[in-house]
Structures are given as C-alpha cells and as structure tokens.
Amino acid sequence: MDIVGALGRDPPECGVSEDGRLPRWVAPLPSALEDVAYRFVWAIVAINLLGTAFGFWYYRFQFARVPVEMWPFVPDSPGATLLIALAFASWAVGRSSDTLAALAFFGNIKLGLWTPYVLVVFYPEFLANSGAALYAFLFVSHLAMVLQAFVLHRMTDFPVRAVAVATAWYTLDLLMDYFVPVIGGVTHTSLPYRDGLPWFTTTVLQVAAAGAVVLTVVPIFFALWTRVETLRVQG
C-alpha cells in the first residue's frame, strides 16, 4: 500500500463541473489543494482531533464555571473541529454523512471567522493575556478552519435537510451563548472583558454577539448557494 492509500483515498468528484470546478465564490480553493486534503484525509482528521483536544483544554476553566447540562454549548471551536474530523473520517471509511458535513461546514466557517474577529476587536487584553505566540496560533489556526470547510463540497451537495439541521443547531447554540441563559448564565466563549463593559456605542457582549449572529447566517448562504451551483452544474 502506498502512502496515499494508507492516509486517504482518491478525492471525490461530487459537485465539480466539466472543467473540474464549481464557481470560485463557492469553491475558492485550488482543486489541487482539495485533492491533497482527500488523499491525506487521515492526517487532516488527526490534526483536527489534536486541535479538539487543545480546545477542550483551553476551555477547562469555563467548563468548571458552567453547569454540566450546558457543557455542549461551551466548546464552540473544538466542537467544530471535532465535527469536521468526524465528517472526513466518515467519508474515508465510505460512510459519508451529509448532516455531519453540513454541521462541520457551519461550525468551521462560523467559529473560524468569529475567533479572529474578537481577537482583533479585543486585541489589547487578548494579546496581554495569551502572549504573542498563542495569540498568533489562535488567529492562524482558526482561519485554517475556514479553509478546510471549503473542501467539504467534494463530499456533499448540502441537501436542504442537512442544512436545516445545521441551521437549527447553530441557532440554538447562538441563543444559549448570548441571549437565553437557561441554566446559569450565557455560554459564550470567555472574553477578556466584562460582558457589560461599554465598548464604543455598545457593550463587549453585544459586539461579540453581533459577530456571532452575522456568522451564523453566512454559512447558510454559502451552503445553499453551493447546492444551487452543484445542481446547476450536474444538470
């Protein structure tokens, strides 16, 4: 068995056009890079599982402050990397799941963009608390989450039911994180400022929530647009 056979499979062709591409606005990565991700898919799975483990460690203090019943809503980024690891692994063993792929797509775009957003907006305290090396790692690794999300169109055409499940989960997560403290307080990722601290014309919590709301809508748009373009190309 060659190294590709050990670490992955030949990449799927689902969703590509006759010239090998969907429109650039829904499939922005070069097809050669997408091919590498699938041919070495187990390496991608391993990297995401390592990121998930680090993420759970990073959230350890927040877990201690939150009731156990609310733990599923706490680890946002590691939850997203776990989902994409499972999505890639399910494809690698021939049991690809549209729902897993949609959940992974939503999570990696939303959290992959939200984290750099708050790192930039609240950079003075984030930089002071984490140090330059960890700050840079968090920034770059979360942008990498966005890039890997745009590989998923090769394993799914984002059926409406799968998009609906992902939309429902990330809407519920949004409510628990910022708006509906069902048990205890809201469960958003800890910020280096008090939630109610004034920030320009609003508060820290509202600035973070605004980004989360917008970035919950963005993946819905991309997933459904990817489906439309895939059906158009295949038809």
Description:
- The structure is a single chain.
- With 235 residues, this protein is mostly helical.
- It has one domain.
- It is built from nine helices and two strands; from the N terminus they run ααααααααββα.
- Strands 1-2 form a two-stranded antiparallel sheet.
- About 2% of the residues have low confidence.
Please outline what is shown here.
The protein is mainly alpha-helical and 235 residues long. 67% of the residues lie in helices and 2% in strands. Helix 6 (98-121) packs antiparallel against helix 7 (123-149).
Keyword list:
mainly alpha, globular, 235 residues, 2% strand
Strand and helix map with partners:
Elements (H helix, E strand, L loop, with lengths): L2 H5 L23 H9 L1 H18 L1 H6 L10 H17 L5 H24 L1 H27 L10 H20 L18 E2 L2 E2 H31 L1
Antiparallel strand pairs: 1-2
Helix pairs in contact: 2-3, 3-5, 5-6, 6-7, 6-8, 6-9, 8-9
The multimeric state of the shown protein is single chain
Shape: globular
Give the distance, in angstroms, between the N- and C-terminal Cα atoms. 37 Å
Low-confidence stretches: 14-18
Q: Label the structural class.
A: mainly alpha
